[in-house]
Structure formats: structure tokens, C-alpha cells
Amino acid sequence: MSNMANTEEVHVRNLLKIHNGREFYKGYYSVGKKIYQDEGEVVNEGFALDKEALDILRAS
């Protein structure tokens, strides 16, 4: 049995900036997490939400 040491990376991104200012994405953000597992696998998890939901998430 090996001793696993995973590295996690969490990010919040402004979708308006990622999509070159397209108005459809105004006020929306993506929240994601990457897990770099010891055996080399990378697991991605994430979702998108609007500014109001992001503020609620940050407050909790």
C-alpha cells in the first residue's frame, strides 16, 4: 500500500474574460478544482454560477 499525496488546485474564473467579452457571459463565473493524484491521474471538477451565487458561496 502506497502513501498517497495528492495536490489540489482551486480556481474561480470570470467567464466574460475567458470568452473575450461576449455579453452572454457577463456576471458568470466558473469554479473548478483539479486534483493531481500521486499515480499521475488528474481529476477535474467544476461548475458555473452567477455573481449572486458566487457571493453567497464566498460568505458561507
Mean pLDDT: 87
Number of strands: 3
Q: How does the helix and strand content classify structurally? A: alpha+beta
Distance between the termini: 37 Å
| Low-pLDDT sequence parts | none
Helix fraction, binned, reads 10-25%
Helix run count: 2
Given the C-alpha coordinates, what overall shape results? elongated
Rg (CA only): 15 Å
* Order of the strands making up the biggest sheet: 1-2-3
Portion in beta strands: 35-45%
Main sheet characteristics: 3 strands, antiparallel
What letter string, H or E per element, gives the SSE order? EHEEH
Describe, in plain words, how this protein is organized in 3D.
The structure is a single chain. This protein is α+β, with helices and mostly antiparallel strands and 60 residues long. Helix content is 22%, strand content 43%. It is built from two helices and three strands, in the order E-H-E-E-H. It has helices at residues 15-18, 51-59, and strands at residues 7-14, 28-36, 42-50. It has a three-stranded antiparallel β-sheet with strand order 1-2-3.
